[in-house]
Amino acid sequence: MPDFIDLPLEFLPLIFENIAKPQHLSACSLVNRAFNTFATPRLYERIFIFAWHKGAKLKVVLLFDTLTTSPHLARHVRKLDIRDFPKGLTLPIYRDLHDLCPRGLTNCVNLKSCTWTRDGSLNSAILEALLRCSQLEELEINGNDSPSYSTAILPQFSNLRKISLIMPSISVLDILPSWLSVTNETLRNLTLICKASSLITDTMLESIAPSLHHLEHFHITGCPKVTQRGILAVLSSNDHGLLSLGLEGLSQAFDMTSFSRECPHLGSLNRLRTITLTVQQTPLQPWMQGVVNLLSTSPLESFQVYSTAPFPGASLDDEFCNDIVTSHGARLTRFSVHRIYIGMSAVRDICSRCPQLEQLFIVADRTEYDELRECLALAPKLRSVHVHTNSVRGMLQSLEISDALSLVRQCPWSVTQIGINNRVFQVRRELRINDDDEEYIEPRLTPMENPDVPEPFLVVRT
C-alpha cells in the first residue's frame, strides 16, 4: 500500500493551504526536502503578531532577526501584520530592534501588504524601508506620527490600492489630501478609524473626495463630526460605485432620510455588496425606512447593523427585516444584527427566504431558543451562527456549551461555527454507534483553530 509520503508533489500545496496553525506548517517543513519546498513559502507567506500572543514582544525581535539574516525566507513574505511591539527597548535583547526592522523589511522583496498599528512603534526608517518594497499595495498604520515618523514620507507611497489609518493625528490628516492626490489612480480601499475624534469632519472629507473617484471600499469609524454631507461628498466623486461601505459611530446629526434621498441620484451604491451601519438615533422608524430606501438599488450580499449604545426596549421591527429580505434575500450571505433585538418571526423570515445565507448573528432571549432552533433548520447553507443573550448575566460556561450544542443539533450539517455571547466554538461531527448497533452523527464543540484572534474577539461588534 502506498504511503502518504508517496503522494504526487502537486497535491502538497493543496494540503498545506488547509493547515491553519503555523506550528503545524513548521512541522511539515521538517518532514523532508519536498515538504520543505512547499511548506516553507506557505509558512512565511503571511506573518502576524498580535498583542495577545504569548511572548509577542520577543517574537517581534526573533522575527526581524530572521528576516534580516535569512533573505531567502524573507522573500516569501507577502503579508506582514505587526500589532504589538516592544516599547522602551531598554533590555539588551531589544536594543538592536530598530536597526533590525528596516533591514528585515528591505529583504521582504515580495511584500504586498503591511499592517503596523502599535502606537509609537512606527518610525521614519521603517517607512523608508517599506518604500523600497516595490510590490507593496496595502498599508495599514497607526496615524499618530508624533514623535515617531515624518508625515512627509507618506505621499511617497504613490501606488497603494488600500490605505488604513488608525487614530490619525492632525498632522497626518493635514497631509492626507496631498497623499491621496498621488494615489488617486490606484486607490481602491480607504479606511479611517478613530475613537470619537473631532479631527475628521465633513470639510476634511470634502477636501479628499476629488481623489477618491476609483474607490471601491470606504469605511469610516468613530468620527462624531461627520454627517451625511461629508459622506455624500465622497460618494459624489466616485466614478463606478462602491462595493462596500461602513458608516460607524458618526454624528448624532447624521440624517439617514436625507442621505437615502440623495444617494440614488448619484448611482454610487448601485454595485454595493456589503454595508455596515450603526444605529445611533431614536426614534428608529425614520432611520429604518431611510436604510431600506438607501439600499433599494444595491445588489446587497452582506448586511450588518449594530448599536453603539443600548436603547432599552428598542428593536428592528419585522417590517424592516422583511423589506431587507424582500429586496436582497436571494443574494444575502450574511445577516448580522448586534446589540439590538430582532424578533423570532423576523429570524424565521431571514432563514427561510435567504437561500444563500451562510452567516447569522443576532440577539435573542434564552426563552426563545426552542423557536430559534426551528428557524436555523430552515437555512440550508448556514455555516456560522452567533447568538448574544441578554437575559442571563454571568452565564456559566457549561450552560453556554449546552445552549450551543442544543442549537447545533438542529442546524444544517453545513454549520461549522457556533457562538453564544463571547464563546465561539468550532463544530465537528463524529460517527457513533448506539446500543442497537445503529450509526448516528453526533456534533461536538471544539476550540477554534483560527490562529489570528482569541475566542472572545471572534465575536464582532458584540
UniProtKB/TrEMBL annotation:
GO terms for cellular component: SCF ubiquitin ligase complex. Residues 5-49 form the F-box domain. It holds the Pfam family F-box-like. SUPFAM superfamilies: RNI-like. GO terms for biological process: SCF-dependent proteasomal ubiquitin-dependent protein catabolic process. This is F-box domain-containing protein. It comes from Serpula lacrymans var. lacrymans (strain S7.3).
